[in-house]
Amino acid sequence: MAVIRKPHDVPGTVAAALFVGLGVVLILQTDRMTPMGSVFPITISAAMIVFSAILIVRNFVIAARCPSVEAADGTASETEPTQGSMPRRIGFLVAMAAWVVLIPILGFFVASLIAFFAIMAVASHERVTPREGAMLVAMGIIVLTGFYLIMANVLLIPMPRGLFF
């Protein structure tokens, strides 16, 4: 008989389940929108549901594959989760807050570039060589430019304009 074990990442599984529910609610709210206006919210909500469901399944599969480890004295031992870095978390929050403040001043694209590079710097754990740095800068500019052009010119989402574009 199969035993359902506790998910691998309980907080992550609970959050994913909440996001599935939120995605369903958001899709149900689009019936008041025009057909063209509802395309973007439905697409994002559907992606959120799919990725959250994948996370839930992943967490249960990992829990099923990893039996509890027994210590030499017979007691179960669990590995301690990593605590992360509080300065990095604060740096991320500061970068996100600065991004929100800078959008109406500099414009969406320029503020997003600054936020992207600030978050990349905060998230980097090891030294980056000049070549790797140049590649990251180039890829960041390409990805952000692509997303901006798709949102502004294809999806016709009005973008906040500031000093720049």
From TrEMBL:
The chain crosses the membrane at residues 12-30, 36-57, 90-123, 135-157. Keywords: Membrane, Transmembrane, Transmembrane helix. Residues 14-160 form the DUF1468 domain. InterPro entries: DUF1468. The keyword Transferase does not apply. Signal peptide: none annotated. This is Tripartite tricarboxylate transporter TctB family protein. Pfam families: TctB.
